[in-house]
Amino acid sequence: MAEAPKILEVATSLREWGSIERYVVWLAEGLRGRGWETLLLAASGTPVAVRAKVPVAERRLRGRNDWFAFPALRSLFRATRPEIVHLHFSPDYLVPALAARAEGCRVVATRHLALPYARRKVLALSRRIDRWIGVSEAVRRVLVESGFPADRVHAVLSGVPALVPTLPRTEARRRLGLGESECAVGFFGRLVEEKGLGHAIRAAHPGVPWTLHVFGDGPLRRRLEAEAQGRRVVFHGRTEAVADALQAMDVVAIPSVWEEAFPFSALEAMSLGKPIVASRVGGIPEAVEDGRTGLLVPKADAEGLREALNAIGRDAERRREMGACGLEKYRERFTLDAMIERYDALFSSWVERD
C-alpha cells in the first residue's frame, strides 16, 4: 500500500488568530482529510499551534534571519521527509526555505497579499522557492508582474467555512435595536486606514435610507467616531458573534482602499446570502460580481458608495436577489471544501510527476 504524501505547513511567524492563521489551520486540516500526512510547524502556545487538529512541531523563529534555527529545521525536514514544504508569510521565507532545500524538499509559498515585490527580492526568492500560489487571480497577476516566471505561479482561489448563526434573524436584529424595515449596512473589520471605513462614514449622511453598523475595533476608532457625529453610523465594537451580527444586516460594505487579496468578509457575507457593496480593488471583483451579487465602486469614493448603497438600500427585492445569487456562487466556488479540493489537485499533480 502506497504511503500517504507528506506536506509540512510552516507557520512559525503567525502569532495571532487572523485570516492567514485561520487559512493555514483550515488547509492543514483539510488536506489531512484528503489523505495527506500533514504536519504543522508553529510557535509553541500560539493560536495556530493550540487550535490546529493536526500534529504540530513546535519551533519559534526569532525573525526572518534566525540562523540559529537552521540546524533544527534541517533535522526536522530530514526526519519527516515531506514532499512539499509550504510557506505562508514572509518571515518564514528565508531560513525554513533554505533548510528545506538543503534536504531536497520542494518549497512552495502561498502569497496572501496583492502587493508587488521589488526586482531584487524576486531574484532572491526565486532561488529559494520552487513555486508560488496566489489566493486569487489578482495576487497571481501581481506575482507575475513582479517578475516571477508565469509557469511557476498559480492561483488557488480561497474558500471559507459557511458562517452558522446561533440566533434567528429577527432576534439578532432585535438585540441590535434594528427596526423591522430598517436597511442595515454592516462593516466588519479592523478600524485601520486601509479598510476605508472613513469613506463609508462620509457616505452615511443623515438623508440616506440606510444605517451603517460598524463591527470591529482598532487604532482609528476615536477619530472615526468623531467623524461619524451627526451621521447614520452606529459603532458596536468588536464582536465574537460575527455570524449573528452579519445575519442581522441587509448589506455588507467593504470600502477598502488598498489591494485586498481576497477578503474573507466577502465570502462570509455570501455564505449568509448577503449582497455586498465594495471597492473595485485587488481580488474583490473575483468574489463580488458587479450587478449580480453586489455593486462595485471605485476606491476612496464616498459619493460612489453613497449612490450604490442608496440604490440597494431602497430596493429590498434587489437585495434578496443579489444575496441569493451570492449564496449560489459561494456554494459553487468558495466553500472551504472547494478550496481544499483545488489545493489537493495541484499538490497531487506535482507529487505524481516525480
Notes on the structure:
- There is one protein chain.
- This protein has 354 residues and is α/β, with parallel strands linked by helices.
- The protein has 2 domains: 6-159 and 335-353, Rossmann fold, CATH 3.40.50.2000; 169-334, Glycogen Phosphorylase B (Rossmann fold), CATH 3.40.50.
- Helix content is 41%, strand content 17%.
- The protein contains 15 helices and 13 strands.
- A 7-stranded parallel β-sheet has the order 3-2-1-4-5-6-7. Strands 10-9-8-11-12-13 form a 6-stranded parallel β-sheet, with helices on both faces.
- The chain starts with 5 loop residues before the first strand and ends with a helix.
Would you give the CATH topology of the largest domain? Answer: Rossmann fold
Just give the CATH class of the largest domain: Alpha Beta
Which regions are unreliable across 5 or more consecutive residues at pLDDT < 50?
A: none
The value of Rg in angstroms is 22 Å
Provide the β-strand percentage band.
15-25%
Question: Overall 3D geometry?
Answer: elongated
Number of domains: 2
Compressed to H and E, one letter per element, the order equals EHEHEHEHEHEHEHEHEHEHEHEHEHHH
Mean pLDDT: 94
CATH superfamily of the largest domain: Glycogen Phosphorylase B
Question: Care to give the gist of this entry?
Answer:
The chain is of the alpha/beta class and 354 residues long. It has 15 helices and 13 strands. The strands form two sheets. A seven-stranded parallel β-sheet has the order 3-2-1-4-5-6-7. Strands 10-9-8-11-12-13 form a six-stranded parallel β-sheet, with helices on both faces.
